[in-house]
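From the thread on structure requests for the teaching lab: each student submitted one protein with a one-line request. Submission from student K.M.:

"Model Phosphate acyltransferase from Terribacillus halophilus, tokens only."
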Amino acid sequence: MRIAIDAMGGDHAPEEIVKGAVLAATKDASLELTLVGDQSKIEPHLGEVRPANIRIIHTEEFITADDEPVRAIRRKKQSSLVLTAQEVKEGRADACISAGNTGALMTAGLMIVGRIKGIERPALSPTLPTVDGKGFVLLDVGANIDAKANHLLQYGVMGSIYAEKVRGIDKPRVGLLNVGTEDGKGNDLTKKAFELLGKAPINFVGNVEGRDFLSGDYDVVVTDGFSGNIALKTTEGTAMMFFSMIKKAFLKNMKTKLAAGMMKPELKELKASTEYAEYGGAALFGLAAPVVKAHGSSNARAIQVAIQQTKQMAENNVTKVIEETIQGMKKDEEEA
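Reply posted by the TA:
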């Protein structure tokens, strides 16, 4: 499996990106990884013996977090992110990963990798933790701020296919983020989307409220990019506040410090269950090949998981299954 990786994207690039690639390449000999970036900065982190299944494409240009996405993709033709996407377009890689500028990666995905035929809008889709530890896919979280009902329908289909093919869930439960669980709730967008999702070839289980989507009762939750991004950032902020409050409480006095010491393994396990590193990156569904956005703060472990996630997407032909499903739905609609 050939995967191109933007070695210069992310808060801890290239060190953590390269170390993650080394972990993945060492563990899985079937991988062929291409690190795109400044060779002089990449090589010191490859270890004493570079894995034979890692190669480097040298470039000294890269896109920063402050660059305007479209302008950067057009002007920085030799940037690590653009060359990473170019590897996929020209058939030298089956998929690509970047922990860099999210907007630039989405733009590169659309302009260079291209969309699946029949998909109107791609969706950015992370996997979030749930109470039962299994997690769920939330889409869209910001690829498209505005959406139409048909876009949400396609999100539901793509999310369901990913949950089944990559996460191994039989008949994934798909919910629609809304202001109430009752049928007929919501604005014009969600009412129309509810109707379309109910007719789709997926296991649509109805509306879901924001307070319930971490319950483990849903495998896929669909929403527009505006609401999805707010839900994602609110969830992240709440988790940060929660652990900060726990830490403050346990450091309050000697008695609580002793309690913290006794509960240290359980607290570590709790924190690990909510770490983004264990859930991989956010897939950009709807593109002609797997494109994964790793978390900007990714460490080596997070990159290793993202590589494995990307490999599974490619091996299970997620892109092809999505295209065939969408085309089949359109054919049924035309014949109806």
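TA comment: The chain has two domains: 1-119+286-318, 121-280. The chain has a mean pLDDT of 91.
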